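Re: weekly structure request thread

Next one in the queue (179 aa):
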Amino acid sequence: MTWFCMFALKNRPRLIGGVVGVVCLLLIGIYIQTSGAKYNFNLTLPELSSSEPVSIEQWSGQIVYMDVWATWCKPCIEILPQIQILADLYKDKNIQFVGINQDSNPVTAAAFLESHNIVFQQLYDPLGEVLVRLNLKGIPASVLLDESGHIHYLNEGASADSMSELQLEIDKLLSASNQ
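Done, posted below.
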């Protein structure tokens, strides 16, 4: 882009060169502004067991998989062990797995996770902020963010096909980032 601007300024009459120059400066400004763009998806929720605030933005530069779930949701609890398997499979890759729990009592959720050996990061969202922000109609919900925080994949519901599809989408993002 800079090369084009320099060429246009050198090879055009002054009036056109001035217009092209202004346009080029605007384009360069837009390029600089967007190249350092802020992480696209940000939300801060308490960590399920400690209640310490955790910002999704802290994983900027990583792929983030969010699983929105609750203990009262049968499809949610059926799919959690499969998500733990994926978290274990990709543990050395540039991806963070995060559960977003919707239970009214965090103790219930923590006890369930412990009894089922689910150990990937868990956040607590009893008011459904994630559901509202993403305009989700229900749970379980799978959300895959790329390294810039843009939604790459979103799925409501759970099935064996959705887990296979999720793994393919994770692999695509990891391949694109050479991980």
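The longest strand covers residues 63-69. The chain has two domains: 2-35, 44-176.
Next request, please.
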